Amino acid sequence: ADNIIGGANFTNDYSANFTNYQDNNGHGTHVAGIIASNNKVHSIGVAPSSKLLILKALSYSGGGSVTSVIRALYYAASWRGANNEGVDIVCLSLGTPKDNPLLKEAIQYLITKNILVVVASGNDGDGSEVEEYRYPGFYNEVIQVGSIEKEMVPAYYSNNNKEIDLVAPGSAIFSTFINNGYRTLSGTSMAAPFVAGALALLKEQGLLLFNRSLSESEMYGQLVKSTNFLSDYVAFMGNGVLDLSKA
């Protein structure tokens, strides 16, 4: 909770109260915990010093409209905090099977604002090399993340397509949940926040090493360097498996 810097609600939950972005599903809290938990009991949180802007675009059921997601994306691009801070990284553990030009336009707008967009690839996989697509994950502009098992093999459910950028742990991930609880969940939704958290760390490292904020393309280059390529699974891996020990 101490990492949350602000938020907004783009759904009809809570009578469409814009200022009430409380999670009433659990999925978002799980994702947020992977990125930035400061847990003193369990080892959770890739980038515990990062700040979170919580934008609720999905309802209590876990579903929602593409319009709500688009509105949240433009809000993220224009948001400014009390100290004029802005959004550096957007994490989208969601997807739709239908391409939407307005969604792509919103993603492209974020890129022009030097914001990195990390997206889960989706859970439609069948373990074969047949390609599966979810949007905005399949857009070239985003960082599309697939999932691996702890044995360092591709998760059977993880979408496979030519736009996968890298993979990260996504199976049996323990993280924070609603009602001050914890839960173990699996999916590419869990893999994407590992990469978002890694980018936050790389952003911090860039400021320390270069005394300036790195561009979106520079950050992507640093991320690709922080991977291990597993040649046995070329079709599923993109640039490889996230490995921050190489950063």
Task: Explain what you see.
Helices cover 31% and strands 19% of the residues. With 247 residues, it is an alpha/beta fold. A 4-stranded parallel β-sheet has the order 3-4-5-6, sandwiched between helices. The chain has a two-stranded parallel ribbon with strand order 1-2. Strand 7 (173-177) and strand 8 (181-185) form a beta hairpin. It is globular and about 50 Å long. It starts with a strand and ends in a 5-residue tail after the last strand. The mean pLDDT is 93.
Average pLDDT figure = 93
Shape: globular
Rg over C-alpha atoms, rounded to the nearest angstrom? 17 Å
Helical proportion, percent range: 25-40%
Portion of residues in beta strands equals: 15-25%
Q: Ranges with pLDDT <50 over ≥5 residues?
A: none
Give a quick account of the main beta sheet: strands, pairing sense, barrel closure: 4 strands, parallel
- What's the total number of strands? 10
- Secondary-structure element order, N to C: EHHEHEHEEEEEHHEHE
So how many helices? 7
List the helices and strands and how they pair.
Elements: E1 4-9, H1 13-16, H2 27-36, E2 52-56, H3 66-78, E3 89-92, H4 101-112, E4 116-120, E5 143-148, E6 164-169, E7 173-177, E8 181-185, H5 188-210, H6 216-225, E9 227-228, H7 234-237, E10 241-242
Parallel strand pairs: 1-2, 3-4, 4-5, 5-6
Antiparallel strand pairs: 7-8, 9-10
